[in-house]
């Protein structure tokens, strides 16, 4: 297998499984009337996808995949804005809730741009892997916070891990750096922990 074909398979695998992940999050969110992705992860994802779909597009294939992710993340963001406040209305005023979201969105956007220039990484690789790691930890925190499967499912957990694995393997084989290698391993470990937590929750509710 040639390098180009291998990387294409990894790219398509990453794109497809993340698309499935987002669709499952949207579906479960509407079913449970809960948001399925934590605020910081939403803001980072939408920022990254906007930047690399419209401002710094890479290959035409990647631009299409990124645009699909961006559109799906718009729905995930709307679910957070629609359902999120209900979980926090006893803790913070509604103005603080929404202003916190848009402040985080702005901070995420400019942080990603800064990382691109700081690391001379106009493909956004370091930002993508870093925010993926943050997302993995936040999914675990969301599950612990809720203590149930609302807004979450095994399909979401598995597809996220598989999509990340395609990206991690592709970068490790041909573009490896010590930092991305460590981040990739950490993501996969946290994703596995998340899968175990979801599996145990299914077992608990099955009894």
How would you characterize the overall build of this protein?
- Helices cover 84% and strands 0% of the residues.
- It has 207 residues and is mostly helical.
- The protein has one domain (3-206).
- Helix 1 packs antiparallel against helix 6 (154-174) and helix 2 (39-55) packs antiparallel against helix 3 (60-88).
Binned strand content: under 5%
Low-confidence stretches: none
| Fraction of residues in helix | over 70%
Count of distinct structural domains: 1
How many strand units?
A: 0
How many alpha or pi helices? 7
Q: Describe the largest sheet.
A: none
Helix vs. strand class: mainly alpha
> Could you spell the SSE succession in H and E letters?
HHHHHHH
Spatial separation of the terminal alpha carbons? 47 Å
If you average the pLDDT, what whole number results? 94
Radius of gyration: 17 Å
Shape descriptor reads: globular
Task: Give structural attributes.
207 residues, mainly alpha
Short description:
The protein is an all-alpha fold.
Please outline the helices and strands.
Layout: H1 3-32, H2 39-55, H3 60-88, H4 94-118, H5 125-146, H6 154-174, H7 178-206
Helix pairs in contact: 1-3, 1-6, 2-3, 2-4, 2-5, 5-7, 6-7
